[in-house]
Write a structure and sequence with these properties.
binds zinc ion; nine-stranded mixed β-sheet; about 35% helix; 15 helices; about 475 residues
Length: about 475
């Protein structure tokens, strides 16, 4: 067994060399046995054979390993780690209506524990950069965005929090109860403050903020247009949920007289600085418009499956030139989904529906890496193994069970359990070694996630919301 060493710690400073690994740069030809030279937080060189002699360089023997770019998660709601396993057999709208009152009880302590556990779980599945869409801000509950930013720093992944928002409660014809929505001025002020306080536009940035009104059924058209104006004024990106379910399409048709993509086009929400979560229910014309305008989508297959939302037309989006990244989505609708596992889920969904050539393992890997980087506006820095890019690298062990699979990329994507993660580097620094988080004790983060769940259930209970029943819920529509 080859030896990616189990030595913890960071590799900042001098050169770090990974050797003897199967390299999949994603943008260039694969190298069956090659090396990567990392200096500081960037990739300096990549090539076949052993690395050049670099005095003082630390060496990682990648024998028996597959090196890929770190995976990029482009849709999540980290706070939902604390509300997993609720509304287990429900449509999106039923699930939301059940969960809004629970989320109304969250505070900064819940968010900190949930985000730490969620991000650690992501890092252990090869994720080096994650977005997060946080859109519930109950008044007087502390600085929820700062809490998740603290958690991301402790885990060590790059973080793209999207300051979400909802301003259209039930009394305005929206879906959420009025107690979880904010007013327009509060949202715009808080969002601008979040950008000022946290957004780092630099090449090496580990934190960028996006602007993210929640969805067409929880947000006013004024909030959508004002959010777009704010984001474009500040040079940050725009994100929202779109075309997730047919219920949403019916809502848009009833309220706006158009389908979701038409609605967003009218509001100035198509463009290369926008990415939509889900985009399940798209027409051919919708797909062409997304491709033509450079609008990205975050495919979240496990969540779409869990909620019975449908299967996104990923292979068609790719065929027509639209960008697709992956997302695990919030854990309340996808529970313990791993990012590496979403490559498999995406591939199987496409093939089950469109046939065995619909999505290859390499396309799934490209969606999970370069596609994600494009969604976040970071194609120049992330998403492939190339000199000059940031050294965000996953080193997967493929010399054990996975070694029996003829093709290493197929082994990575198709396994129900991902291969062991020998190393995960973020900007050249070790975040995971030998399947263990090295930045913060992972057991501590796991326990904090459990505590966040208990705390949220207790806080919700104090507001009269019962905990979910442990027994399976009865079928909502039992047949005789
Ligand atoms: Zn979502």
């Amino acid at each position: 067994m080859g030896g990616a060493p189990a030595v913890p710690g960071t590799e900042a400073g001098g050169a770090l060399v990974i050797e003897n690994a199967y390299l999949v740069p994603v943008t260039g030809p694969e190298i069956p046995s090659g090396h990567i030279v990392v200096r500081g937080d960037r990739i300096e060189a990549i090539g076949p054979g052993p690395a050049p002699d670099l005095p003082g360089a630390r060496r990682v023997d990648g024998t028996g390993c597959l090196a890929t770019p770190g995976l990029v998660n482009t849709h999540h709601h980290l706070y939902q780690w604390a509300s997993q396993g609720f509304a287990r057999e429900a449509t999106l709208f039923e699930w939301l209506v059940a969960l809004y009152p629970v989320w109304a009880a969250m505070d900064a302590e819940v968010v900190r524990g949930a985000a730490g556990a969620g991000l650690a779980h992501l890092a252990l599945s090869g994720c080096t950069t994650s977005a997060d869409h946080h859109y519930v801000f109950p008044a007087g509950r502390g600085d929820l965005l700062a809490a998740e930013i603290d958690a991301a720093r402790a885990v060590g992944v790059r973080f793209h929090p999207a300051r979400g928002s909802m301003d259209r409660g039930v009394s305005d014809g929206g879906l959420p109860p009025d107690e979880v929505v904010e007013d327009l001025d509060t949202i715009l002020t808080a969002t601008a403050e979040a950008i000022d306080a946290h957004h780092d536009p630099s090449f090496s940035s580990k934190l960028r903020v996006a602007v993210a009104p929640c969805s067409p059924f929880s947000v006013s058209t004024e909030l959508m247009t004002e959010s777009a104006a704010l984001a474009r004024d500040r040079g940050v990106r725009l994100h929202t949920h779109l075309a997730e379910t047919l219920d949403e399409e019916e809502h848009c048709l009833a309220r706006y007289g158009v389908r979701p993509v038409d609605h967003m086009e009218k509001l100035g929400w198509l463009g290369p600085d926008v990415w939509f979560a889900h985009a399940v229910h798209l027409s051919d014309a919708d797909i062409d418009r997304l491709a033509r305008t450079g609008t990205g989508t975050a495919h979240c297959p496990s969540s779409n499956g869990r909620l019975g939302a449908g299967i996104a037309r990923v292979s068609e989006l790719l065929r027509r030139g639209a960008n697709v990244g992956l997302g695990v989505d919030g854990s309340a609708s996808a529970e313990l989904t791993s990012l590496a596992g979403e490559m498999r889920q995406a591939l199987l969904f496409q093939r089950a529906r469109y046939g065995p050539t619909a999505l290859t393992a390499r396309q799934a890997l490209s969606v999970a890496t370069l596609g994600g980087a494009r969604n976040l506006g970071r194609e120049a820095e992330l998403g492939s193994l190339e000199p000059g890019k940031l050294a965000d690298i996953a080193l997967w062990r493929i010399d054990s069970f996975a070694g029996a699979v003829a093709d290493p990329v197929h082994a990575l994507v198709l396994g129900t359990r991902q291969p062991p993660l020998a190393r995960l580097l973020v900007g050249g620094e070790t975040v995971v070694a030998d399947d263990e988080l090295r930045t913060t004790p992972q057991d501590e983060l796991g326990r904090a996630g459990v505590e966040a769940h208990r705390r949220l259930v207790r806080l919700a209970g104090e507001r009269g919301v019962p905990p979910p029943a442990p027994a399976p819920s009865p079928s909502p529509s039992p047949r005789p």
